[in-house]
């Protein structure tokens, strides 16, 4: 490959040009993020921007943008100190593990009525009859306990909203209008079926129309700018929860359970790393105590929107796809709940994803660590960060099916089942990208590992697996596909000089591999497990691209081609007789 060697002045000029482009992009982002939803023409919003009303907000956003790593003006005065941002973020991440105060826990445990957090996923509130079923479960639980409910959007709604957001960026006005209209009809029909009182129904309908108007304005703004900012994407994708929570609360009231819908933007405070925010647990605890405790004391069931939070300045953030599980454990941790129940469409955590392995069966009890590993490696039944807020607590989490509430499901406890050990479950994650940083000169590059992972940390890319060749010619690691682009861009910035001098020869992306993880406590101390896995896969002709074992005693992870994922799961499941 031929690379043009550029002189210093040339590089400085290019840097300045790049900086100016980034500044322009940042300005457009600010304009977009502060675009008032009521503007209908480009002229309108230009006038509005010129009026300077949002100058203060804009500078805040500029700071946030810089912190997101998008703005790196290098030689300019306005440069952003990325290392400071990294340190600050590391401090914030510390806060994501909530250190529950023992005295507070003792007081919480002595409460007359226990407190349960119950989360209902998309399928569990997917239509009027599902919501009816969820309401019966909640009503029964209120007899003995105080309940905080967390709800997802009705199934499929978030996907449709994101589709509308993406189509808005493409300027497809007609399709966007169709999607919003369909969603509005869907929610109105559910309200019609659930809420018999005309007055209540019209009240809820007004609330929902307000949400749709906001969605429409955001889509219009995106169409005008032809750019979908993270902030607009987050707000549009949050609408589903803001529709389902009032519906569930109204259905509860209709069945005689006092209830109030609450927007989690009032409760869950996150940092401002849009796209991958971390919750700030202590201030979230204060907000929850102030807002939820008085309701609970009066016997009112709060129905909280899952998936969303807000920065301390009130900017809406989302916790990532499937994030309502995370919302439930955040609330459970800060409120010192006695238990958290995640109601879903399967009987619990199964030995493998039932969509891939037909013989998968329910695991009665599993440890926090095992569940966290499974979630981290793609078991969709739990958001990857679900167990994070509970690591310092002993709050049990149950996974149960709304469709078979008589079954006990899976109990997740700090230490799992006493006779646990050995392979317990399998999972796979296909939505990943393999990034390689390498080249013969890499041995001489200063602190290549440190800089690589400092960069992934700053880009908030969860590294799922790492492998390095012994000669240090290549480091490869796996990150979720969603963050691959920003990770590779950040790495190319970090190693720009080394790439120019050919010390680092390539930074490449491979999207054709998938991670399979074998999970179980104490596997490390059980000889022969690795041999059995790879022996069985070898017999099925399944090639292993990379392996990681050792860093966690309860996980062996390896990479296979995406096309081999199902075969790898079925084979390993059979080898360890997990179906029995
Ligand atoms: P919800 O809408 O309730 O949040 P999800 O669709 O996010 O539900 O998660 C439940 C789905 O997770 C199940 O339907 C199942 O297909 C999938 N899944 C993947 N791995 C597992 C596993 N090990 N155990 C149970 N379910 C799993
Ligand atoms: N509604 C969001 C999603 O579909 C969050 C969730 O369901 O947990 O990703
Ligand atoms: Mg989910």
Main sheet strand line-up: 3-5-2-1-8-10-11-9
Helix content: 40-55%
The CATH class of the largest domain turns out to be Alpha Beta
* Rg: 25 Å
Corresponding CATH architecture of the largest domain: 3-Layer(aba) Sandwich
Number of strands: 19
The whole-number mean of residue pLDDT values reads: 84
Strand count, sense and closure of the main sheet? 8 strands, mixed
CATH topological fold name of the largest domain: Carbamate kinase
Specify the CATH homologous superfamily of the largest domain. Answer: Acetylglutamate kinase-like
Number of domains: 3
Q: What structural category characterises the helix and strand content? A: alpha/beta
* Broad shape: globular
Account of the 3D structure:
- The protein is globular.
- The strands form four sheets. Strands 3-5-2-1-8-10-11-9 form an eight-stranded mixed β-sheet, sandwiched between helices. Strands 12-17-19-18 form a four-stranded antiparallel β-sheet, sandwiched between helices. A four-stranded antiparallel β-sheet has the order 14-15-13-16.
- It has 580 residues and is of the alpha/beta class.
- The chain has 19 helices and 19 strands.
- The protein has helices at residues 8-33, 42-50, 55-67, 82-96, 102-109, 128-141, 157-169, 173-194, 198-225, 230-237, 239-254, 281-297, 324-334, 368-376, 448-458, 481-494, 496-500, 529-539, 565-575; strands at residues 115-120, 146-151, 259-262, 269-270, 301-305, 308-311, 316-318, 339-344, 365-367, 397-401, 410-413, 425-429, 432-438, 465-468, 474-480, 506-510, 513-519, 546-549, 555-561.
- It has three domains: 8-110, no CATH class; 115-345, Carbamate kinase (3-Layer(aba) Sandwich), CATH 3.40.1160; 428-575, VC0802-like (2-Layer Sandwich), CATH 3.30.2130.10.
- Bound molecules: adenosine-5'-diphosphate, aspartic acid (ASP) and magnesium ion.
- Adenosine-5'-diphosphate binds at residues 121-124, 152, 322, 344-346, 349-350, 352-355, 374, 379-381, 425, 427.
């Amino acid at each position: 490959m031929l690379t043009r060697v550029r002189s210093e002045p040339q590089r400085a000029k290019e840097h300045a040009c790049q900086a100016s482009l980034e500044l322009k992009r940042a300005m457009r982002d600010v304009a977009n993020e502060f675009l008032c939803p009521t503007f209908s023409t480009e002229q309108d919003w230009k006038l509005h921007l010129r009026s300077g009303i949002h100058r203060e907000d804009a500078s805040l956003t500029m700071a946030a943008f810089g912190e997101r790593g998008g703005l790196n003006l290098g030689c300019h005065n306005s440069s952003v100190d990325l290392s400071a941002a990294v340190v600050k973020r590391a401090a914030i991440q510390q806060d994501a593990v909530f250190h529950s105060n023992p005295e507070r826990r003792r007081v919480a445990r002595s409460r007359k009525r226990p407190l349960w957090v119950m989360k209902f996923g998309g399928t569990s509130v997917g239509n009027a009859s599902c919501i009816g079923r969820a309401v019966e479960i909640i009503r029964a639980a209120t007899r003995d306990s105080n309940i905080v409910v967390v709800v997802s959007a009705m199934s499929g709604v978030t996907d449709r909203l994101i589709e509308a957001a993406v189509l808005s960026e493409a300027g497809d006005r007609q399709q966007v209008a169709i999607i919003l209209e369909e969603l509005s009809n869907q929610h109105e029909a559910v309200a019609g079926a659930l809420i018999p009182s005309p007055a209540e129904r019209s009240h809820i309908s007004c609330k929902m129309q307000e949400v749709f108007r906001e969605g429409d304005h955001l889509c219009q703004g995106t169409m005008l700018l032809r750019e979908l900012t993270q902030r607009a994407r987050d707000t549009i994708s949050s609408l589903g929860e803001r529709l389902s929570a009032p519906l569930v609360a109204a259905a509860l009231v209709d069945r005689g359970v006092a209830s109030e819908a609450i927007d989690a933007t009032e409760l869950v405070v996150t940092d401002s790393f849009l796209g991958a925010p971390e919750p700030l647990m202590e201030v979230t605890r204060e907000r929850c105590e102030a807002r939820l405790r008085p309701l609970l004391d009066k016997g009112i069931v709060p129905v909280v929107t899952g998936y969303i939070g807000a920065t301390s300045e009130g900017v809406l953030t989302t916790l990532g796809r499937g994030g309502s599980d995370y919302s439930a454990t955040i609330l459970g941790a800060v409120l010192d709940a006695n238990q958290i129940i995640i109601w879903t469409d399967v009987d619990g955590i199964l030995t493998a994803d039932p969509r891939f392995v037909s013989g998968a069966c329910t695991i009665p009890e599993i440890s926090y660590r095992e569940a966290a590993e499974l979630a981290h490696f793609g078991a969709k039944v739990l958001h990857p960060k679900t167990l994070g807020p509970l690591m310092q607590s002993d709050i049990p989490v149950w996974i149960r099916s709304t469709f078979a509430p008589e079954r006990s499901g899976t109990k997740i406890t700090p230490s799992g089942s006493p006779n646990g050990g050995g392979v317990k479950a399998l999972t796979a994650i296909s939505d990943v990208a393999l990034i390689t940083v390498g080249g013969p000169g890499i041995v001489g590059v200063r602190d290549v590992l440190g800089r690589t992972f400092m960069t992934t940390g700053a880009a908030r890319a969860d590294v799922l697996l790492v492998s390095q060749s012994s000669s240090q010619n290549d480091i490869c690691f796996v990150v979720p596909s969603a963050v691959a682009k920003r990770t590779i861009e950040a790495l190319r910035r970090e190693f720009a000089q080394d790439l120019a001098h050919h010390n680092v020869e390539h930074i490449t992306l491979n999207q054709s591999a998938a991670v399979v993880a074998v999970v179980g406590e104490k596997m490390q101390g059980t000889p022969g497990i690795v041999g059995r896995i790879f022996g069985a896969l070898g017999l099925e002709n399944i090639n292993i691209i990379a392996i990681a074992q050792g860093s966690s005693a309860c996980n062996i992870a390896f990479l296979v081609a995406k096309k081999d994922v199902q075969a790898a799961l079925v084979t390993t499941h059979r080898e360890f007789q997990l179906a029995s």
